[in-house]
Amino acid sequence: MNTSIQNLRAELTESADEKTRAATQRFFKEEVRCYGVKSAAVKSIAKRYWKDVAALDKGEVFALCEELFQSGLCEDAFVVADWLPSMADKFTPGDLAIFEGWIGRYINNWATCDTFCNHTVGDFIEIYPECLPRIIEWTGSDNRWMKRAAAVSLIIPAKRGKHLVEVFVIADRLLTDGDDMVQKGYGWLLKEASRLHQKEVFDYVVKHKDVMPRTALRYAIELMPKVMKVEAMSRT
């Protein structure tokens, strides 16, 4: 084990407490593995260790990130999600295959999915929008977290008004998925897109409201005026 990772994990272990561990579990339906460290403390620890890691070349950093992912502990994955955006300027198109592999092998809950995809994959998309077709292909996966990743990777760009066409393509492909984690993922994506494209998202929801799961629909219209919510929630 790399010494930096060993020391980082030791510090996370020392910072853990049973109360936080138990509280964390309440946010998940499935059992998750975690140290039990509050998010602010994880970020602080990650930031301090990044000062040393940042001097390494990209391949070495990616190797450390994979080593962290392999533990299956939430906080280790959060460290990865904190580190990688700091080196987004070194990303290359081929890195998407690495990110995809990590999602497929190591992501096993909504928190690690969202923290990694919102920022690392989201930053990647901002730099290489030509890779969006591959992100869209994730919607056809048998892996629930890969499908959620397709949606939540566009959260930050969508919030800025970008990639509306792709937002709707992803929503189309996930529209009637029976998994609530997937429904919440694409519903959230539509909600963020509605910040700057309210009419377009509203029209999309109204068009599909009779087949869209209510979970996804409620997420999608969360930021809309009450009159729009009432119309969107009514069945034809």
- Structural class given helices, strands, pairing? mainly alpha
Q: Strand content of the residues, in percent?
A: under 5%
* Rg, Å, rounded: 19 Å
Q: What's the CATH class label of the largest domain?
A: Mainly Alpha
Task: Summarize the helix and strand pattern as letters.
Answer: HHHHHHHHHHHHHHH
Largest β-sheet summary: none
Tell me the helix content: 55-70%
- Overall tally of domains: 2
Protein architecture, described:
The chain has 236 residues and is mostly helical. It has 2 domains: 1-90, Leucine-rich Repeat Variant; 93-236, Leucine-rich Repeat Variant. It is built from 15 helices and no strands. α4 (58-69) runs antiparallel to α5 (74-83). It is globular, with a radius of gyration of 19 Å.
What attributes does this structure have?
single chain, 236 residues, mainly alpha, Leucine-rich Repeat Variant, 2 domains, 67% helix, globular
